[in-house]
Amino acid sequence: MAEAMDTVTADVTQLAQQLTELGLRDWAAAATEQTVRGHVTAAFGALEERAGLAAKALLARLGDGPDKPGANAAAPLAEAFACTFEAIQRCTMAMLQAALP
């Protein structure tokens, strides 16, 4: 992604110098912002979906487990926390890696 952005920057800079009346720098900045916003929105949408699925799985497990004699009621919570934490960490790292050159 960073390489593609560098290429676009070089191309737009070259064209902007020759065709100043088109305002290519402003257009490129707006297009870049829109693309990055779309990527971030998609990443957080995927994270939200995973968190929702983890919450549904947790509710299903809590409905089955804690009422049983001797069941460890905290175990599903700990597992759900670990799953959610891992998903958030994985998505955040993916976004950072995509943003860095």
Task: Describe, in plain words, how this protein is organized in 3D.
- This protein has 101 residues and is mostly helical.
- The protein has one domain.
- Helices cover 83% and strands 0% of the residues.
- It is built from three helices and no strands.
- The chain has helices spanning 2-18, 24-64, 74-99.
- Helix 1 (2-18) packs antiparallel against helix 2 (24-64) and helix 2 (24-64) packs antiparallel against helix 3 (74-99).
- It is rod-shaped, with a radius of gyration of 23 Å.
- The mean pLDDT is 77.
How many domains make up the 3D coordinates?
1
Q: What share of residues are in beta strands?
A: under 5%
Number of helices: 3
Computed Rg: 23 Å
The N- and C-terminal alpha carbons lie at a distance of 8 Å
Could you give a short account of the major beta sheet? none
Shape: rod-shaped
The percent range for helix content is over 70%
* Average predicted confidence as pLDDT: 77
Q: Which structural class is indicated by helix and strand composition?
A: mainly alpha
- Would you identify the regions where 5 or more consecutive residues have pLDDT less than 50? none
Total beta-strand segments: 0
H/E element order: HHH
